[in-house]
Amino acid sequence: MRNVVVENAADAVKGLRDGHVVMVGGFGGAGLPRSFVRAVAELGVRGLTLISNNAGTEGDDLSLWFRSRIVSKIVCSYPRSAKDFTAQYRAGEVELELVPQGTLVERIRAGGAGLGGFLSPVGVGTVFEQGKQKIEVDGRTYLLEMPLKADFALVKGKVADTLGNVTYNMTARNHCAVMTTAADTVAVEVDRVVEAGELDPEAVVTPCIFVNRVFARTSS
Amino acid sequence: MKGLERQQLARMVASQLPRESFVNLGIGAPTHVADYMDPESGVILHSENGILNVGPAPALGEANFDLINAGKSPVTLARGGSFFDSSMSFAMMRGGHIDVAVLGAFEVSQNGDLANWNTGRDEGEPPGVGGAMDLAVGAKQIWVMMEHVTREGAPRIVAECTLPLTAKRVVSRVFTSLAIVEVMPDGLVVSAMLRGARLEDVQARTGAPLRLAPHMRTIEPDGKVAE
Predict the structure, then answer these.
(1) What does residue A203 show for φ and ψ, rounded to 5 degrees?
(2) Number of CB pairs < 8 Å for A and B?
(3) ipTM
(4) What total of structural domains would you count in chain B?
């Protein structure tokens, strides 16, 4: 029977290489897979493209990736109050693609859902329309927004079963659930793992088809 | 002229929210509106990171950092609350399901253009947009709450915004430290003024023409609005 549980965080991020595109879940600290963030920092990779809502604040969050200079580009909605990212940004060492938050998550959704993009009214008449195709539908102007996909998605869940079905905890669901649909390899860090059949099927938010690896911070 | 302080401004906005409406409070000053909402009003608060029915701040020592608001501060869940992912949350915002979004702003123009996102350019800081644009485009009504003038005394309600826009023609009502200003198709209308203020006082601090509503209301110094 399928079992996607791995024993440590290093195994969960195995195969992540230089130049990969990596989605990392979280809104601030909620939903941030901290064990995976540390494990990637220890890989010694370079030139990652990071897709994430934020760019860390300070300490052992995504700031680690900027302190160790492993990110060359970030696609992000709100990289403010991010000490280490800001230092690299000021020095011109990291490229920023700023995306309104709803557009960011929908681009990820489109990537995971096999769509070639979508039309959004957000950003029309602002600097965010630069370089984008404008399309009118029923008299309203929209911007063509392109899908986002990744080599890896690293997210935080609450409980997973051995098949890889995942539940989330309160606002820690945020971008995590959508990110699991849009990457070649999806690793989920959870608080605990249970046997298949122990999760209420109605409570499963991410079905196991999207999940390749599950790592429990503490096993039970 | 001494205008309302932030807390009184929050009380004024809270008193004007429609009963049983779905409301998103932006980060910063609008967050304080929640402190003054009448529990009987039935208003349901939305938070962009995936909450409907946001409750008050937790008691000291009971914060859960998986339960935070858009400003990343710990909150609680009110009775009948729910959680959902960001895609569904922004569908609520962009899809026109939120009745009122209360946002802070740097500038509002006379036709309702909104400038309220952190472009970061002046300080060498990175820019950050977050959910500001999605809310501004999608909520049924956009209310702005802000100081009437900048720290330097320049108007924030202007003929045309000078700062990069968040969205065009979206603001319907502006609550300031001096007045409530309605953005109408034919210009700005003052529907309430701080007790003791005259139209010429408010006009002198505003960068676009104002006119008085037929039924003017008075804002008391504590933020209450007398009908």
Answers:
(1) -95, -10
(2) 135
(3) 0.96
(4) 1
